[in-house]
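On clarity, I found the account of how folds are encoded harder to follow than it need be. An entry of this sort, consisting of the sequence and the corresponding backbone structure tokens, reads as follows:
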Amino acid sequence: MRTIDVSEVTALVRKLCIDANYYLPADLRQAFVDGQQSEQSPLGREIFGEMIANCDLACENNVPVCQDTGMAIVFAEIGQDVHLTGGSFEDAVTEGVRRGYIDGYLRLSVVGDPLRRENTNDNTPCILYTSMVPGDRVKITVAPKGFGSENMTKMKMFTPAATQEQIIDFIADACIGAGSNPCPPIVIGVGLGGTSDKAAYLAKRALLRTVGEHNADPLYADMEQRILDKVNASGVGPQGLGGTVTALSCAIEPFGTHIAGLPCVVNISCHVTRHAEGEI
């Protein structure tokens, strides 16, 4: 059994909130470079160049890569051989988000109640998902999510008789219909199976996959590629101004489901698909 004081959790979450907003993952920046090379529209290539320059300037100057620093989504994997001391784990995560957003001078975009709409002025509450895993470590991933893209989320409860083509069309149509709203080129996360809430979680989790990496199952890898092909043939293009690269990546995460159902959730991320992870 390994003992970890929750103050370490707070410190790590604080750091990850800042890092995720300042520094884009290397695979995502490379996707910008690759996208610029394959984009056929001159304006689209110019936009990719601006995206690359913006990402590099944010990194060099330690400033947010986007003015919308999002709502903090926190994924925590807690080793079953860890003993947490010093207080509540959830409170420690919340405090880390509060410190990270205030200390990092990140935009405070969260309201405490969905109808009263009063800003909490510290970007809490965050969205926290925890899971127990083998081992004696705590792994935390912070993935800030802006709502230009989050508002484009789509869900459909298919019947088990649905065909692959119908599912692919639904996912592609959700992305194409979003147009310029999610600040393309986008990253597509798809949750397939489980229950409605599980599918939504899987779709969000799918956005953490390395850009361009397909599902290990050939069935889903083929679907991912077909979705990408349809979305990129739409002509929406970078920032919705036309072009041949509307989406950078598509990740499908499947899960077992009931014999009577087939939930599907599409969660779209903007071109700055931010996330940072660390371990204690």
